[in-house]
Amino acid sequence: MSIKNITVLGSGIMGHGIAQVSAMADYKVVLRDIEQKFLDKAMEKIRWSLQKLAEKNKITVEEVDIFYNNITPLVDLQTAIHEADLIIEAVPEDFNLKKKVYQELNSLAEKNIIFASNTSTLPITELSSLTDRPDKFIGVHFFNPPQLMKLVEVIPGTRTDAKVTQEVTNYINKINKRPVVCNKDVSGFIVNRVFIPLVHEALFSMERDHVSKEVIDSAVKFKLEFPMGIFELADYTGLDVIHKASYEMNLRDKSVLLPHPKIKEKYDNQNLGQKSGSGFYEYKGDNYERIDLTMEKASEYDPYSIIGVAANNASWLIENQVCSIEDLNVALRLGMGLKMDIFDIFKKIGPSHVIGKLLELESKYGSFYHPNQYLYSIK
C-alpha cells in the first residue's frame, strides 16, 4: 500500500485547498467537480494562492507552475479516479449528498483505493457503511483554510484497517501537516467536541449572567487567553458551520452539548457571521474586522462556566482514551489557536471555582454540567 496519486472530490474552499497542499508535496492530484465552471474558479484560486506564496518567498517562481501542473481538473468521475490510490471526498457537509457520492464511487472505484472523508462532524463508521470497503475508509478532517492550517484530525472508523490509518497518517506528514489520530470515532472528534459546545455555553452565560457578548468575549480573550472571543470566533468560523456541526453532534450524542436555540435562529435567518456581513456582530466589507475587546470589559466577568464546559469535554476525551493529553493540546493549539494548554487554563482560573460553578449549574440545569471525574485529579 503506497499513496502516489490522489483524487479530491469537490473543488470548494476545502477541496481546492487540499488539492493544492497535496500538489505542493509533489503528489499527482486530480481535482474533480460536477461542472467545469467550478473547476475553473478553483484553479484560478490555486494559481493566485501559489503566486502569493512566491511573492512571500515561501516557494520559487518556477515552483508555481510545477505545483499548479501537478493538479488536473476533471468533470468525468470515472476518469478522475482511474489512477487514484486515495480519494478524498470534500463535498458539502450533507449526509445525503455524501451518500450519493459514495454510491457512485462503489460502482466505479477499484477495490484497493482508499476512501477518505473530509467531514468535520459526521461519524466515520456511519459514512463507511455507505461503501463497499469499510476497512479502507477513514476520516481526514482538514481545517479551514488547508493552505494555512497545520492540523489534520485522522479518524479511523471501527472497521478501518490499521495499515490504512498508518498510510494516511504518512500522507498527512508528507504534505507538511500535523496529524492527530482520533482513536475513537466520537461525536465532534477532538477539536469540535471542545469548541462547538462553547458557542452554545457563551449564549447561555450571556442570558443567565446578564452580561453583553463583548464582555464575555473580552473575558474569554484576556482571562482564558483564547485568540479571540467565542462569539467572534463563531462569526469567523461561520454560523452555518456551527449550526450543522451542532445538529449532527447532538443528533448522535445528547451529552456533548446543550443546544441554544439562537444558533438555529441565526442560521435560518442567514446571519452567518463574517461571510454574510452579520452574525453575532456586524461586519462591513470583505476584510475581517476585529471586535473592540478590552481588559476593562474582561474585568467585569469570570467565564467559569465556559472554561468548565471546555475542560469537561476535554476531560471526557482523555478519560475515554480518544487521544493523549499531548495530542489534545496540539489539536486545540493548532485547531482553535489556544495559547495555553486547556488544563493549564483550568488551573489558572481555579479548579475549585470552575468545579463549583459546574455543580451549581448541574443543580439548576441538569447532568450536562456534571463535573467529569478527571477534573478532580488536576492540581
Automatic annotation (TrEMBL):
Span of domain 3-hydroxyacyl-CoA dehydrogenase C-terminal: 188-283
InterPro entries: 3-OHacyl-CoA_DH_NAD-bd, 3HC_DH_C, 6-PGluconate_DH-like_C_sf, 6PGD_dom2, NAD(P)-bd_dom_sf
UniProt entry tagged with the keyword Oxidoreductase: yes
Gene Ontology MF terms: 3-hydroxybutyryl-CoA dehydrogenase activity; NAD+ binding
3-hydroxyacyl-CoA dehydrogenase NAD binding domain boundaries: 5-185
EC number(s) given by UniProt: 1.1.1.157
Name of the protein in its database record: Putative 3-hydroxybutyryl-CoA dehydrogenase
Organism lineage: Archaea, Nitrososphaerota, Nitrososphaeria, Nitrososphaerales, Nitrososphaeraceae
